[in-house]
Design goal:
Order of helices and strands: HHHHHHHH
Oligomer: single chain
CATH architecture of the largest domain: Orthogonal Bundle
Helix content: over 70%
Mean pLDDT: 79
Strand content: under 5%
Distance between the termini: 52 Å
Radius of gyration: 22 Å
Structural class: mainly alpha
Largest sheet: none
Amino acid sequence: MHRQVNTFDDEKALLRGLSTHDPLAIEMIYRQSFGPIQSFVIKNNGFSDDARDVFQEAMVILFENAQSESFELTCRIRTYLYSICRRLWLKKIEREKRFYTGSFDTLNEIVPVEDDLEMHEKKDADLQLMDEALGKIGEPCKSLLEAFYIQKKSMPEIAESFGYTNADNAKTQKYKCLMRLKKLFFSRYKNED
């Protein structure tokens, strides 16, 4: 039988474990937190898969926060995750016009997570805009930027595979492509505001 985490130090240890991808910490957080979230989602016109989706999204938010030196958790991890999942699920059913029953399960404490969610949603929106800009940039820029930033190829490798005479020419072309991408991104970004 697994020991329940009750102390503040254990919560901090779980957060540290999460930030370093410790599978035991992640499993413990999952085991302690998922049940109430699944119940809440199912009682409010969702399914187990929906619960898993919102839980994964909440874990990403918690993971990103755990990486930050300035993040300070002021409640239990399960309460924090529940609050994020509750907010995510309510926004989702509002978008999809599903019915909310108003049940809150056994967790009476709901913490304000608006700032964390808004920051996460803004980051998602920015990534989507960047993805759209990358889709519009055209070739060879798209492939060149992907080769450098995603595939982590060196400039000599890029020069060889793209047919540039040397690494400096490839670097110049990468810079021009990056400037084009920035221009496309920021023109869309300004339109979104």
